Amino acid sequence: MKAEFDLFICVPVWWDDYKAWRKRPLTHKTYTYIWADGVHFNVRLGDDRLACLVVIGVRPDGVKEVIALEDGDRESTESWSTLLRYISASSLQALKQRGLSAPKLAIADGALGFWAALHQVFPETAEQRCWVHKIANVLVKLPQRLQPRAKSQLHEIMRAPDKPTELAELARFQKEYAAKYAKAVNCLTKDKGTLFTFINYPAAHWLHLRTSRFFLKFA
């Protein structure tokens, strides 16, 4: 009973803290990279499964911060646009007053409504598709007996040390699987323009820039 009473007392305080946090000014902030994902919870309101839209940023000094945290639909452009426009309102004000620019790179799953929203709000920000999500999406389109080998090959593509090596590994994957498993190959190649963006940034950052799942897991 005491625990229930304590929770009853704390929730309004937490809510007030959250409302103040989400309205905090961002005019003094600069984020080099941002990661976005929609985290689902095993809680339902009616027929809807709750999701939390999360954006995490890294400052030039390497410190990571949660920039935004909202409820919404992870596949919805409107949900992500609303969230990003809240961030943008402060960022644009800072841009005018202090020269704050948009993040250099955004990392997220290709299925998110996040990307259409990003194009509207921060069109100059480069895109990096999440490799963890991409590998999972490719493997599910292959027979189970081929998945261990294909997974190893996809990791070789992802971890290639330079662009020519990446393209060579990608070509080998296409040659081996395209004839019988075109859907798997198309799933991989359709986003090749945004799967390798990370290579344009410092190699020491690549581990974190390849995926949103890794960063959010340990945030």
Textual characterization of the structure:
By secondary structure, the chain is an alpha/beta fold. It has 2 domains: 24-128, no CATH class; 132-194. 50% of the residues lie in helices and 18% in strands. The chain has 10 helices and 5 strands; from the N terminus they run αβββαβαβααααααα. It has helices at 2-22, 77-98, 114-121, 131-139, 147-158, 163-177, 182-189, 192-195, 206-209, 212-218; strands spanning 33-45, 48-58, 64-71, 105-108, 126-129. The chain has a 5-stranded mixed β-sheet with strand order 3-2-1-4-5, sandwiched between helices. β4, α3 and β5 (126-129) form a beta-alpha-beta unit. α2 (77-98) runs parallel beside α3 (114-121) and α5 runs antiparallel to α6. It is globular, with a radius of gyration of 20 Å. The model is unreliable at 1-9 and 90-100 (pLDDT under 50).
Task: Give me a quick take on this structure.
The protein has helices at 2-22, 77-98, 114-121, 131-139, 147-158, 163-177, 182-189, 192-195, 206-209, 212-218; strands spanning 33-45, 48-58, 64-71, 105-108, 126-129. Helices cover 50% and strands 18% of the residues. It starts with a helix and ends with a helix.
